[in-house]
Write a structure and sequence with these properties.
The complex is a heterodimer.
Chain A lengths: L9 H20 L2 H25 L5 H6 L1 H10 L1 H10 L6 H13 L13 H36 L4 H15 L2 H15 L15 H39 L2 H8 L4 H26 L1 H4 L1 H6 L5 H11 L2 H29 L11
Helix pairs in contact in A: 1-16, 2-16, 4-5, 7-8, 7-10, 7-12, 8-10, 9-10, 10-12, 11-12, 12-16, 15-16
Chain B lengths: L1 E9 L7 E8 L4 E6 L5 H9 L7 E8 L2 E2 L5 H7 L4 E4 L13 H12 L5 H14 L5 H6 L7 H12 L6 E5 L7 H11 L6 E6 L2 H7 L2 E6 L2 E7 H6 L4 H8 L19 H4 L13 H5 L4 E4 L2 E4 L1 H4 L3
Parallel strand pairs in B: 3-8, 3-9, 6-7, 7-8
Antiparallel strand pairs in B: 1-2, 1-4, 4-5, 9-10, 10-12, 11-12
Helix pairs in contact in B: 3-4, 3-6, 4-6, 6-7
Classes of the chains: A mainly alpha, B alpha/beta.
Amino acid sequence: MTFVTVTTGREIEGSFCGSFFERIQSVMKRGMIFQHLLTGIFTLICIITINFLLIRFMPGDPVMHIIGEDEYLRLETLNPKVLEEVRAEYGLDKPILSQYITYLKKTVQFDFGNSYRTKTPVLETVLFRMRWTLLLAVPSILLSALIGGSLGATAGYYSGKKLDTVLSPVLMVLSSIPTNCLAILCLLIFAFRLKWFPLGGITSGGLSGIAKGLDIVWHMLLPMTVMVLFRSASDYMLMKSTVEGIRKEEYITVAQGKGISDRKIVFHHVIKNALCPFITSLCMQFGNILAGSMMVEIVFSWKGMGTLIYDSVNTKDFPMLQTCFLFIGICIIVFNFLADVLNIVIDPRLRKEKINE
Amino acid sequence: MLDIEDVSISFGEEQAAVSEVSMHIQEKEKMVIIGETGSGKSVLLLGILKLLPDSADVKGHIRFQGESLLDKKKKEMQKVRGTQISYIPQGSGNGLNPLYPVGKQIIESIRRKDKTIGKQDAKARMLRLLSEFGFNDVRKIAESYPFMLSGGMRQRALIAMGIAADASLVLADEPTKGLDTERIAMVIDAFSKLQDKTLLCVTHDLRFAKAVASRITVMYASEQMESCEKEEFFEHPLHPYSQAMLKALPENGLFANMGFAPPKSGEILRKGCHFKERCPYYREKCSQEKPPFVTMGNRKVRCWKYADEA
């Protein structure tokens, strides 16, 4: 059994990268990227607008959603004047259109107000929490793509052989278990029973330098493993079914008829054709990166975006939630755009080039 | 050069896709297999190259230049493919990788023959090949992606790719499928450039067969019905199926009295002659016993009408 690894030969990589930028240029010239960019910007404006309308059209006084129920009740009974001042401060007494314009201005200036729970600027908290989520999610997405993708490609190409029959059912089960179940199971076995890993958190505290870094890595290992297991399984399934389909295409038979080795067929003909759906899936994972690991973060008390959203929902911290949603939206739009562009660059059929007759 | 003896191919089902086919192809001969869709002709081509899925069970003997192909191991077979036996798929299909320019895919074949060839030399040879097959703006064609070409152009590019590694035996699968008369003429022209090659071509286009073949084999529902020289086939077909096919040609009066093909499965194929349901010369014996493939002079035919005489 030969395993397909993702490291390609120099020759293949060279030819791919060499023309990669040329192709981007040719696509840019045709204005196709511009078209996708416009769609992205339009979606972004929609998200911002919905974000704005959400608070204004929710039942109840918008001021309550902005400053929180506790504060609202206190001011209403003890100091109604201050409440009106707050209303004026947020411009909630003005007509909705001028409120919208102010809101847009503030959004562009990254002024999202203060969290009513911590009273600190929302943006600061979100950006701080974001880095911990990224630290956990980026390596796990990349690692799973590597593991799941290469195993899936091998199993799909040698469909029905040993690797496929052993791995597919195992990963099928793995991908159908909800992440939080898997996370609790791992926590129970490896942290609680075996005590190999900490029960949660990002750091033990009281450390500095390399020791601190290693401590964070030690805390990361278990949640990351859970995420890698889960994501690899779904990456594997996608890659396997894509490659299985491509394997049946006539051009693969033709390539075999040319007498090319299996290795070359996989790299030159199979992988590149399987790349479009796989890249789309990866971009969707990256797009969903900020909220995607919420379950794992909560189980392992990882203080990232996921727990931030969770806590904010529990405490009805609307300014915080609004900002989180905005960032999640931006992330999804950016990576969708990236997926569109990459697909156009890889697949000439999407470039709508002229047909020679 | 290529000896096929009693080759049967089945996919685990009761009925074989190819049953007991035999043919001997001499060097530079142009053998054309005529048959309807589903008669097993394409499976036979892939069987020769050992490119069928693992579920296929190939029995019999296939010898290429004296060596048994069925006994060859995977690596040994890889060496034969492309450089000694090449495969040309149908241009209307998906035989070219959609993501690479046509020229690059032809160069891939050229490199099979000459591994050390430089980039410029390979490109020059590829452009020369394309111009040989009737392309005018060869550079533009080489840089085109498969979806940018018409079916006829793809077919010619595939023929160029098929012979790029200089194989002596060329297997072609329905080269005229889905093409109009004008483009068929172009493909015939392309095939006429393969004079120094041995050709085994599969088609259901009788006029293409007439233009390209030196010998003809007729297949019907997995069995070989007739095998003879081209002239004999078109002037004096022996098998009732061959006769009916030729009568149905427009120049012979579009005379099609056989009706639609019955399903080629189950009862019909279990016993007796596979053609019995449609045969105008049907008799009792045809549904009881399978006719043998008898030799009549320098031709062979599978029909009780002749088997009894012989």
